[in-house]
Design goal:
With about 425 residues, the protein is mainly alpha-helical. It has three domains: about 5-70, no CATH class; about 80-175, no CATH class; about 205-415, Intergrase catalytic core (hpI Integrase, Chain A, Orthogonal Bundle), CATH 1.10.443.10. The protein contains 17 helices and seven strands. The strands form three sheets. The chain has a three-stranded antiparallel β-sheet. Strands 4-7 form a two-stranded antiparallel sheet. Strands 5-6 form a two-stranded antiparallel ribbon. A hairpin with a 3-residue loop joins strand 5 (about 255-260) and strand 6. Helix 6 runs antiparallel to helix 7 (about 160-175), helix 9 (about 220-230) runs antiparallel to helix 11 and helix 9 packs parallel to helix 14. The longest helix has 20 residues, at about 160-175. The radius of gyration is 29 Å and the shape is elongated.
Length: about 425
């Protein structure tokens, strides 16, 4: 009498695809295992492929290799808990995914990005996951229920829910690629509809009135920060990292940004850029750096009064709104209603310069360049720098210059705190 076959193959058709599953017979007890995905076994064997298994003889070979390698009865099925997996996936120090990505493509994933998503996972996802839920048990239905429960709590904005679900799906797709989730599980859901609020900007009259107030009444650091953001379009993270050595006679080299978790890093877009800046403003920025009474390694322009280091992530935003309200140009309610933020100054710089210089030069100056544009314009040449500087003078500085008789651009008279 012949011995029973060590496994039985079954073929399923789903979503116009063929999936092979195998039921293995335990040689000691004669009992059959639950169905096992042949494609997952292929991945566990170290054979990585996105192509589905379509031929029966290929499926048989994989099942035989899995038996020979002891993947079926030689070791226990990997029991990875969803909670543990998600926490590790978004752990900057422990995540194999982060380590591999940043090794193959340095700085492709930042610490702030990972830390933010880890916080969202810990605060909003983990409480909704049963402690004993296995990664192998994840289904599309469970993912859709997670999204539904996040919405039902009515505590998160739709955009936040979308960020959370994108983080969860990214982790699960990597788990599926590595064979921890069955290949036939669909890992796609429809994001929630989000109505984005347009970023508000000040009118030219409002901006002039505010800067006149800031010149006379505000702290020197916040006044110069607002002026610099308006003229150059620099981001708050780039201002936090700005150091004295990056300031030339009439330009600034933007090659660093600062974030709370990542610390000093490349600016957004991973590319340095040259930004024309009026010589008188460059001089004022250097003087501000010299006024730092604390010793430090970075010679920061916008230094913190608490030790002379980096200012907080909310410094520019909070102080800008506070000073704008104090100027009585807008009330705090109007600032909120119109969605005016410190980042609005960057948008205003972009709007005022647009049409006055070549679009490619504008994008390179502001820092909106695509990879194709970066390859084309690695740095602005001398002619490009001059054209940007002329556009700044014509479209932005002239806007402020009609207040010159009031001392708006006479920086030597600025009160120092």
């Amino acid at each position: 009498m012949s011995s029973p076959a060590p496994f039985t193959l079954c073929r399923l058709y789903r979503n116009e695809r063929t999936y092979f599953y195998a039921l293995f017979r335990d040689p000691e007890t004669g009992k059959r295992t639950n169905k096992k995905s042949v494609e997952r076994l292929r991945t566990r064997l170290g054979i990585f492929s996105e192509k589905p298994i379509q031929r029966r003889d290929e499926a048989i070979r994989i099942c035989q290799q899995a038996l020979e390698r002891g993947l079926i009865f030689g070791e226990k099925e990997e029991r990875i808990l969803v909670r543990e997996y998600l926490r590790t996936f978004y752990d900057w120090e422990k995540s194999p995914y982060v380590a591999r990505r940043n090794t193959l493509s340095p700085n492709s994933i930042g610490k702030d990005y990972i830390t933010t998503r880890r916080s969202l996972i810990d605060n909003h996802v983990i409480p909704l996951v049963k402690p004993n839920l296995l990664l192998s048990a994840v289904t599309l239905g469970w993912i859709e229920d997670l999204q539904y429960n996040l919405v039902k709590m009515d505590a998160l904005a739709p955009s936040t829910v979308n960020v959370i679900m994108s983080a969860v799906l990214a982790a699960f797709k990597e788990a599926q690629r590595r064979g921890f989730i069955q290949q036939n599980i669909i890992l796609e859901i429809k994001h929630l509809d989000v109505v984005h609020r347009a970023r508000g900007v000040l009118t030219e009259k409002e901006m002039t009135a505010f800067l006149l107030y800031a010149k006379e009444q505000s702290e020197k650091r916040i006044y110069l920060a607002c002026l610099l953001a308006l003229i150059t379009g620099m981001r708050s993270g780039e201002l936090r990292a700005l150091r004295q050595e990056a300031i030339g006679k009439d330009l600034i080299i933007v090659d660093q940004a600062y974030a709370d978790h990542a610390g000093l890093k490349s600016p957004k877009g991973k590319r340095s850029r040259y930004v024309p800046c009026p010589s008188w403003l460059c001089e004022q920025l250097r003087q501000l750096a010299d006024e730092n009474p604390f010793e430090g390694d970075h010679e920061l322009v916008f230094w913190s009064k608490r030790g002379g280091g980096f200012v907080s992530s909310h410094y520019f935003s909070d102080r800008f709104k506070k000073e704008l309200a104090a100027s009585e140009v807008l009330t705090m309610d109007e600032i909120q209603e119109r969605n005016i933020t410190f980042h609005s100054l960057r948008h205003m710089a972009n709007s005022l310069l647009r049409g006055s210089i070549d679009e490619h030069l504008l994008r390179m100056t502001i820092g909106h360049s695509s990879q194709a544009l970066t390859d084309l314009y690695t740095h602005l040449n001398e002619s490009g720098l001059k054209s940007v500087a002329l556009a700044q003078e014509r479209m932005i500085l002239s806007l402020l210059d009609h207040g010159h008789e009031k001392g708006l651009l006479d920086t030597n008279k600025h009160k120092i705190h």
